[in-house]
Amino acid sequence: MTAPLLALVLATSPSGLGAHGEDLLVREKAEVKVSGFLRLRGDLLHNLDLDRGTTPLGRPLFAVPLSDPLAQDLFVADMRLRTDLAIYAPFAAAAVKVRADLIDDLVLGSTPVLSPGTGNAPTPAATPGQLPNQVIRIKRAYGEVLTPIGYFAAGRMGNQWGLGMLSNGGDCIDCNLGDAADRLAFVTALFGHLWAFAYDFSAVDQVPFRKDSQRRLVLDNATDVRSITFAFMNVRDDLSRRRRTKAGKLTLEYGAFVSHRWQDFDAPESYLPTTMSRPLTPASVMRRGYRALAADGWVRLSAPSFRVELEGAMLFAEAEQASLLPGVLLRDRVQSAQFGAALETQFGANDSRFVGGLNAGYASGDPAPGFGAFPPAGALGTPGELDGAQVNVPRDTRVDNFRFHPDYRVDRILFAEVIGTVTDALYVRPWGRLRLLDFTSAQLNLKGSATVSRSIYAPSTPNNDAALGAELHGALTWESKDGFDVLAEYAVLFPFGAFNNPAQNLTATPAQLGRVRLAWKF
After folding, report:
1. So where are the chain's domains?
2. What is the C-alpha separation between 345 and 431, in angstroms, rounded?
3. Which helix (H) or strand (E) holds 85?
4. Contacts of 116 (CB under 8 A, 6+ apart)
5. How does residue 182 score in pLDDT terms, banded at 50, 70 and 90?
6. Contact 506, 60 (CB under 8 A)
7. CA-CA distance, 450 to 492, in Å (whole number)?
8. Most buried of 18, 122, 218, 266, CB within 10 angstroms?
């Protein structure tokens, strides 16, 4: 499968269905609630190409400075202004909610005015031609209502499930992406559980304008991608969980979903890069026969002195016709079976001076060369390359590498920057947090972790060696109740045999990352 199936939202996140109407009350007048954050980050990346030379296709593992390929350091600073707006209707348990990232991961200095007489002032955010795709984005807009028979929501809404390993709404302060779904959803309570159904408009082909040049039309509904999801949950809201913890009670929460996605026909010309665009014709449509099934289970056991949380997922898919060229058909079907799991533990109460735990994860792999995290379009897997397509019809008709959502982070360098996400790998991560200072309005914490990882299939790595590396990470965080947070962190990756380059007689050397983040929450 090229991407995880969209799932439903669980109650631990503000990404849509998770709230299932707790904030929907009958109000005497209209109310507006605004929340969000301003985030500024600066990253110093040192030797992320691991000084191991180039791959067989002449590429470094990570970008290097253009002026001096032998240089070690790259620096980048960016910012995001996120605004979540909730408008509550009067005399009804209903609301409209919007998420707008007014400045979305804008690289500082990337939109300068350099014409004579203007100095070096940044351009306005929405100036045409100045990277508008990185500036203003409306990411969610949906309505919700609480009725006597259940909760109903419709529109483009957040998409989070469990730990966020498979579907992640991107709500955390350091998240970059975040899933959203164009969805109709209904949740109701029955037999002590929440039961949910969702219908997603996952994708459509070319959408030309109608006569009024405003509305658009879907040319062929047979090429649409659709998804349906059923889920059941036994969950508690944050307030209830905190009350049970203070009372010394054990709390068990769990949920599961099954999701089906399908596409009968396809028009590849509508999305493949071409030298010139042209209107779609009946000859553009071809048989696809795509079917996919996803199942995910999540469980959390929490008590005053510990928390154990586990998520596991299975994804199965089949494409009857995998060709992207109308009229050029392939004989063999492409199939996929992927498996993933993530474990998080915490020992010690949240307000303890010291807490720690052991996290671990597994993402199934594929023996094809390259990790298959973000393979370039049309590129075949080449031994020695970091990434590549996991299918090569007719010799290889399977894509079995499970991919964690990139916003579910387990480290800072190897999976987060070099590979791009956890795939075709197993990792173990012990961690700890020590409270150095505790004031009435703020805390100073020291956090540390160590991540050791291996590949499931050695041929996926650049050196045909399953041992990936060990990464150490430390961070100082200043967290205040007035909403101002500061983070300073450092990570170092010690690469193992997977990244050595015997063809050039080079051994991979450690990579380092330093980051400073300022955040104002409101």
Report:
1. 31-110+133-209+220-270+286-521
2. 9
3. strand 73-88
4. none
5. very high
6. no
7. 10
8. 266
Say if residues 220 and 207 touch (Cβ distance below 8 Å): no
Single-letter code of the amino acid located at 353: R
Query: Helix or strand or coil: residue 190?
Result: strand
Query: Looking at this protein, which amino acid is placed at residue 188?
Result: T
Q: Could you tell me the pLDDT band of residue 275, with boundaries at 50, 70 and 90?
A: low
Amino acid at 483: G
What does the mean pLDDT of the chain come to? 87
> From CA 173, how far away is CA 175, in angstroms rounded?
6
Strand partners, 449: 431, 473
Q: Does domain 31-110+133-209+220-270+286-521 have CATH number 2.40.160.100?
A: yes
DSSP 448-516: EEEEEEEESSGGGSTTS-SEEEEEEEEEEEEEETTSEEEEEEEEEEEE-GGG-BGGGTB----EEEEEE
At 116 the pLDDT is 54
Using alpha carbons, select from 297, 15, 357, 406 the residue that is nearest to residue 183. 15
Q: What six digits make up the tokens of 318?
A: 């089949």
pLDDT for residue 123 is more than 50: no
Residues 381-401 have pLDDT tens digits of 789 999 988 988 888 899 999
Query: pLDDT tens-digit profile of 7-23?
Result: 333 333 345 455 556 77
What is the tens place of the pLDDT at every residue in 258-272?
999 999 988 887 777
